[in-house]
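Entry 14. Structure prediction run on the chain below.
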Amino acid sequence: MTGAALAWLAGAVAAQVVGIGSLRASAGFRRPGFAVLTLLGIGVSVALMSRALVSGVSLAVGYGIWTGSGIALATLGGAAVFGDRLGRRELLGVGLIALGVVVVHAGG
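Output returned:
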């Protein structure tokens, strides 16, 4: 994976996390600023992911990293920003997702 492709993919993950975090903050789209940020974050994430694919990231590797990283970071962000409680099972799940992302990246 080239540096440019990795940068596109990292940007896609970051935008996804911003979009998902904003979705939570939008309170069911009742807070317009966060609702707009949700749509922008998700839209930018998809656009950046498409650039990563064009830059040579395979769909299997790119999608695995994009979704896995997004899930793990959104879960941890929910705990850090919104006070979501994470028990041992949830933390184990996040750890397994992170391990899976590393394995997928190493194989790609």
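The chain has a mean pLDDT of 94.
Filed with the rest of this week's runs.
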